[in-house]
Amino acid sequence: MKVVSAVLLALISVQSVAKNVEDVRIDGLVQMPSTRAFDLIGFHQGQPYDSDEVYKAINSLFDTGYFSNVDAYENKKGVLVFKVVERPSIGNLTIKGNELIKTKDLKRGLKLSGLEVGEIYKPETLNKIQQELQRQYYAQGRYSAKVDVTTTKMPRNRVDVAIKIDEGKTAKIVHLNIIGNKQFTDEQLTKDFKSGIKGASWNPFSSADEYTKAKLQGDLDSLKSFYLDRGYLDFQIVSSQVSVSPDKRNVYVVINVSEGKPYTVNKVALNGSLPISEDLVWKQIDQKKGDVFSRSKVTKTIEDITNKLGDFGYLFANVNVIPEKLPDHKVNLTYQISPGPKVYVRRIVFSGNSETQDEVLRREMTQFEGALATRSEIEDSKRRIERLGFFSNVDVKTRRVPGTTDEVDLDVSVEEQASGSIQASIGFSDSDGVVLGFGISKSNFLGTGNKLAFNAQRSNKTSNYAINYTNPYFTVDGVSRGVQLFYQTSDYAADDVEDYQLDEIGLGLSYGYPISDTQRLTFGATVKKTTVKLGSTPSLETSSYIDKYGNSYNDVLGSITWSDSDLIGGVLPTNGYSTSASLQVSTPLGDQKYYKIGLNSQKYWNIDNSNLWLFHVKGRVGYGNGYGSSDELPFFENYFAGGSYSVRGYSSSSLGPKNSYPPGSTSTPSALGGNILTTATAELIFPMPGVEDHKSVRTALFLDAGNVFASHCLPSNNMCKEGFDPSELRYSMGLSWTWITPIAPLSFNIAKALNAKEGDKTDFFQFQLGTTF
């Protein structure tokens, strides 16, 4: 109404015939600069004007949104006066009550709409934003959400804008029904739905019964895919109705469908240009006459043909299918192929690697600059970079070179993640007690891709000092070289395992040779000196070995290891596998003669491709023994089981045969270890509610199994049985939680020993803090 009254006033006050402007004045300006206001009016002294031009000037001022009222009149002196009332500016803006939508996101949206401190207050714009917020909450099933906006006057023509949000609660789906389905039951159709009926889920953290518009739309798409994958080309969703209860807490969903009848394939044909062998294309087609039509198979066929053409350099091939419906519910499928030109790589550009040198990335590329661009080489290059473990995300995009049709640039974008630590720590381990340590561990030393680690660690029973350096590209063709220097002292009497002290010092050198992209063969040699000092009450097994072979040994160890690793995700893998088999032999050049054979394997399955729900299995077996003049494995080379790294729920290194003591000894038998090891773990990894950073936090339900066994026992030891006995395997289950902190990992295990026997030591709760990794 203010616009109308202002215009009427202008028409009444200003003569309808044109006359010259004696002068122009604007009264009431506070916020808007006067020069801008005069430019909007457009009148100059001496310029003729009439009522239409005044009308246009008033509209120009109103259109800026700065003014709530504009009057125009000519005073007694012939001056044309525009009297304006400016809208107030926003002096303060507060938002309260929002959790689902972050405040910074809300303020960003308000700013884009011109609502921020210092800007002119426009009620109509704020009303639109209020309605949009309400709509967004409704789309998330929060029908009880409320968005209230209040304004309070402030001095100097300003207002305080307060947005108060009550997000309410998500309405629950209490009824979900499909009408019109005759060939399939509701249970079959809703099996893959993200939406579910209230109380139907076994998972207490499930949000399936919470209604959202986006989730229901996804379920409708899933329903359509269900029918199209089974040949129902005439399937239609006639309607989907959503009703809300009066209290806005419950939702009723009814989906009305028309099924039609399934179609079968009558003929499959190829059309277009085929730059590669037709047989190669036909091998990608998994459909033949008489098969029930399946959209998912058609989609996969299109993808497979496109990928096969991409392997020959046709990166931008276009493959479409033309379905032709026939009588009697049959369909012809014609795959139309347009390969386009062969494409070559002009340049490979890396970004995001602020620490890692380009050369580290470039040497993993199997796709080269100037070469024919192939899909398989590009994907293989991406996978190799992911396997480095230095990056949380790797993205490779092909970008056409402007002005050409046969050249692309590869943009390799990475996100670096922590690849090591520098730390001085005080920690505690359930197995080692207090741990004091200093360590430098870097898997990507100075961005070169080389691995350097120096660790100095002391606990109540061990002192470890080690330097390791590995160059994975000692030669340009991928031969690696590793050097290791170590010194370790162990006082096992402090852990009630045995009454002896062990000192070891050694130097090792290894070379690894690539067999394939994932496989490697590593040869190593280690020179080691070992000294054993018995305590006052050693076990019979320990003293027996010392009596036979002495207490000081100079050994030369040779090793060979085959490994095959395709793990993705770095410290906490999310996909892939890893397997290694090793043989270590104490050569005749040394004082002892023994060997150890080991096999380690693990695999991750990404259950829903989200990197959040994973299934992980791992296993380890080991066997060692003497050879030649030695008929047993040295006792300090025995395998042990139990604790955080093997069978959780049992005390560290507590499983397996027990040692023995002379008659009359008061010493308590403890774990002897064994020359046979077997352990296995199965884990269901799931996202922990309330945690956002799942790349450094991992929660899992686990089942562990394993034990150690001995093939040689002293005749007098009735607590040691020779050979592997499956009935002696120990089992446990529980919950584990791991957090990779910026300094060091922190892990907790809550485990229940399932079949502990007399003499077993169990731990319900185990944790480690401050150890290096």
Task: Describe what this molecule looks like in 3D.
This protein folds into six domains: 2-86, membrane protein fhac (Ubiquitin-like (UB roll)), CATH 3.10.20.310; 89-166, membrane protein fhac (Ubiquitin-like (UB roll)); 172-258, Ubiquitin-like (UB roll), CATH 3.10.20.310; 264-338, membrane protein fhac (Ubiquitin-like (UB roll)), CATH 3.10.20; 344-416, Roll (Ubiquitin-like (UB roll)); 420-769, Beta Barrel (Porin). It contains twelve helices and 33 strands. The strands form seven sheets. Strands 18-19-20-21-22-23-24-25-26-27-28-29-30-31-32-33 form a 16-stranded antiparallel beta barrel. Strands 2-5-4 form a three-stranded mixed sheet. Strands 6-8-7 form a three-stranded mixed sheet, covered by helices on one side. Helix 1 (2-13) packs antiparallel against helix 3. Mean pLDDT is 85; it is low at 1-17 and 423-432. One of its GO terms (biological process) is protein insertion into membrane. Residues 88-168, 171-260, 263-340, 343-417 form the POTRA domain. One of its GO terms (cellular component) is Bam protein complex.
